[in-house]
């Protein structure tokens, strides 16, 4: 099996509603009603903490070794190239970091082998705690990549399905679906480097601020909330970029 590269970046995406919605409280109550009784008595802050889960390593001071290729097109969408698996349901488990990591590797697997395979986020939830991840209590994408490298593989979603809860590690090398030889971090908050990487390498793991209620109420269009901060708490996957109505955007897979 060929070793695959993964690429990760810690960026802040200031991304969706030009001005606060005066009916936001009403929309939030409708969201909770639509998404089940487990959220009924929770605030937007409670739900954000439950449905995100990024844990940036203490003292994380990355030195980027990424070399830009250049020649990025005006728009890119890796879904059109068959490199993006279906959106998953994270459930009440802070495993965003795991879904972000497997998404980047899934694309590299497709580019190397021609096969699009959903990889196991649960494998990372259960087995990478020695690397500083906390399972459903949160984690970080680079720690997930390092586990896959040292473990010499990761299971598929089919062989190690997602349970939305912490479990006992039962990785099985006989059902290994992918490997990873290295990962590369991009310069912090460098959107030009991010565009270059997305265009020339593939989908990229990133971190965003998902604390605003508008993030959970998003349905379509370009998400752009001016209250977005540089305090990131959620791992997602950038699968493309483009421009809509003269507004540049990042195309993001959320889980």
Automatic annotation (TrEMBL):
Residues 72-255 form the Peptidase C1A papain C-terminal domain. GO terms for biological process: proteolysis. Coiled coil: none annotated. Pfam families: Peptidase_C1. One of its GO terms (molecular function) is cysteine-type peptidase activity. PROSITE patterns: THIOL_PROTEASE_CYS, THIOL_PROTEASE_HIS. CDD domains: Peptidase_C1A (cd02248). Keywords: Hydrolase, Protease, Signal, Thiol protease. The keyword Hydrolase applies. Residues 1-18 form the signal peptide. SMART domains: Pept_C1. Belongs to the peptidase C1 family. This is Peptidase C1A papain C-terminal domain-containing protein.
């Amino acid at each position: 099996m060929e070793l695959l590269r993964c690429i990760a970046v810690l960026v802040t995406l200031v991304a969706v509603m030009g001005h606060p919605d005066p009916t936001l409280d009403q929309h939030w109550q409708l969201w909770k009603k639509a998404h089940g009784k487990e959220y009924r008595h929770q605030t937007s802050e409670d739900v954000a903490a439950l449905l995100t889960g990024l844990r940036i390593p203490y003292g994380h001071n990355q030195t980027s070794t990424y070399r830009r290729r250049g020649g990025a097109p005006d728009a890119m969408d890796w879904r059109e190239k068959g490199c993006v698996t279906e959106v998953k349901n994270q459930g009440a488990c802070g495993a965003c970091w795991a879904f972000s990591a497997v998404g980047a590797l899934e694309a590299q697997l497709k580019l190397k082998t021609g096969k699009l395979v959903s990889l196991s986020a649960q494998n990372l939830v259960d087995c990478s705690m020695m690397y500083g991840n906390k399972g459903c209590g949160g984690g970080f994408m680079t720690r997930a990549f390092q586990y896959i490298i040292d473990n010499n593989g990761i299971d598929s979603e089919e062989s190690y399905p997602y349970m939305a809860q912490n479990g006992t590690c039962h990785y099985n090398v006989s059902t290994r679906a992918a490997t990873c030889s290295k990962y590369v971090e991009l310069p912090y908050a460098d959107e030009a480097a991010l565009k270059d990487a997305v265009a020339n390498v593939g989908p990229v793991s990133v971190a965003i601020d998902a604390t605003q209620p508008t993030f959970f109420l998003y349905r379509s269009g370009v998400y752009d909330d001016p209250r977005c901060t540089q305090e990131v708490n959620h791992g997602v996957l950038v699968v493309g970029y483009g421009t809509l109505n003269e507004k540049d955007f990042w195309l993001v897979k959320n889980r």
